[in-house]
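Blinded run. Sample ID left blank on purpose so nobody reads anything into the name before looking at the predicted structure. Input follows.
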Amino acid sequence: MFVFGNLFHAVAYILDTLLSIYMWIIIISALISWVNPDPYNPIVRFLHSVTDPVLRPIRRKLGFSMGIDISPMIVILAIMFVRYFIVASIFDMGARMK
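Blinded prediction complete.
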């Protein structure tokens, strides 16, 4: 049984790390959008290509009625929910199987 416990622990750790990295990518993309960057810069293109597929549906549903784009904040809150609820539950399941 300890093998499955270690497997759950490893999956939870990898998922937590990936979610943390993606959260920082969204934060960096939001900060860069404040300074009107060059759209042909490879870093800016990478950030947009990674974050736009997630942010675009939220932007469509919310619209710009408030004049501020809060879609990064909504995605960050969703990532935090997944990290603190789902990933923590996987960690706990792994710890109980050891």
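Unblinding after everyone has recorded impressions. The two ends are 7 Å apart (CA to CA).
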